[in-house]
Amino acid sequence: MSKLRGVYHHRVVDTLDGISLGERSALSRAILSGSLKELPRLGERIISPWTPVKNKLVNEGEDSILSTYFQSQNAPASFLLGLAKSSLGADETAVAESATYAGTIAANEVGAGIGYAQGALTRDLTGFPTLAAQKVTSATKQIGPATGDWGVVRFQFLLVATSNKLVSVAKFPADHNILTGYRFDVYWELTLD
After folding, report:
1. What are the residue ranges spanned by the domains of the chain?
2. Residue of 165, 147, 166, 148 whose CA lies nearest to 156
3. Most Cβ neighbours (<10 Å): which of 53, 65, 67, 130?
């Protein structure tokens, strides 16, 4: 019997390597006040290397996949990768199969205005350039860099862009405290095995 299995891969990069925490706070204040429009370009340092994280496909995501493939209905033009702060449970298995973006994820998502925006993936060869050995892999998206401290980030998720239908959710193996200048690099794989 075959089953669908998804895996997120992520890493955390410090785009302001060499700047002290005090200097980061000053940069955050300058950006928020409008006196500084963007972060200075400095060296980058890997905070967390590429790490695979198993994820849970929820009912909305499973229905979307089946509807698109077998009924030629509701084919999404694009997807969004995002990050959630608050704990949604001990791991992705604690998230209910019936979880939705509006009911479960939205209130826990990293807030806008501090360098955070969901990463967009088109449903084509640009958004998902690799298909091999029963696995499709998305392009790598950069989320950030943070222009203010995001706090602790614990989960990542995938949405259908136009409907905000939740496809999958995954908990990081360790919490990530995201400071000014940090960014997330993330990509998603779906395997039929």
Report:
1. 4-192
2. 166
3. 53
